[in-house]
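Aim 2, interim progress: modelling of the pyridoxal-5'-phosphate-bound target.
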Amino acid sequence: MKRDTQIFEIIEQEKLRQLKGIELIASENFVSDQVMQAMGSVLTNKYAEGYPGRRYYGGCEVVDLGEQLAIDRLKKLFNAEWANVQPHSGAQANAAVFLACLKAGDKFLGLNLSHGGHLSHGSPVNFSGLMFQALEYNVREDNQQVDYDQLESVARAERPKLIIAGASAYSREWDYARIRKIADEIKALFMVDMAHPAGLIAAGLLDNPLKYAHIVTSTTHKTLRGPRGGIILMGQDFENPWGLKTPKGEVKMMSALLDSAVFPGMQGGPLEHVIASKAVSFGEALDPEFKTYQAQVKRNAAVMAQAFADKGYKVVSGGTDNHIVLVDLRTKFPALTGKVAEKVLVEADITTNKNMVPFDSRSPFQTSGLRFGTPAITTRGAKESLMGDIVEMIDTVLADVENDKTIASVREKVNATMKQFPLFAW
Ligand code: PLP
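Predicted structure of the complex, ligand included:
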């Protein structure tokens, strides 16, 4: 077979793009070479529907070892009692929880998408909003932090079957204990989607939601620094407290309901090459070095938030407890949309994304905010001292968005800076 130069040239181009730019997308990271290697391995050739020790295909003895290792390492990492490592993505992990816990049309409660929530927590264009009755809670207008009083009053009035905590653009710690109390009062299940801060939680730098939630979902590719994928975990609460039934009407343990919801409910064959790669990343996250990395991610974000504030930007919620810095552009540049800001920064080789800010006056296609994150830049070795320079470069571009010369000179600086932070060994 002839080598496919067309696609490999595209991959090379993307590699160069990643190398020369400053990557500030909060949901991205750079995986290690061994995480990458496991993904591109012979395990992709294997079908393994089912779970370790109970598969629908022959020849699964070896992949069973890989999947079990991933499960064992993941349980240890988050102090979990049960884990499923098969979801192909974070959204599919969430979909499996919905399938296990709700019937079509049931009510559930999640954070308003325009206040930082995720698409799969009830957006009207997502399965969660299309198939179920999505209710929402907000952040408070005064401090842009979760409005627990409002959450509580919606929960009491509407009695949803499921309450979801977790977000895509929220930079603060959660009061999981308070939400669990509300869930218990109305006999709802409590799920935390820790996709964004999972790495910080694994490192013990944020509270572990497994202590409070019935079910925890996550992606593996953000702060956790693994391959793209999803996971589902449970702490001590796998007993099916509210007597949920299988489609055949049986009451089973939550773990069994969730396993069946992932396969055969949502997916067919698991991606054993990705699961092996997840195992590698969980192993890396168990290493003490990971704690040092996550502490740096957090410190870098705090310094970045302060640097934006010092330059007159409004940082949503006034700061950050995690890896995210959400900036409201309106105070400094009232006419500048997130859409234009994202585009000009990309021209300067700084990658970030436009984002709604709470109580945004603009649509999700324009937005008034930019979301920044420090996981990727920290993996490349950036320390606090670089954060001020990065904010300075961003500010220079945003203050002069129509000047190609300014953009070109910042781009040169960005490329020169990133040369000092080598990335791939290959
Ligand atoms: N949950 C949260 C909180 C997220 O931020 C994301 C992705 O950004 C997801 C779920 C979905 O993950 P995936 O893109 O792997 O489906």
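The chain has two domains: 33-286, 288-419. Residues 27, 89-91, 118, 120, 166-168, 193, 195-196, 219, 230 surround pyridoxal-5'-phosphate (CB under 6 Å).
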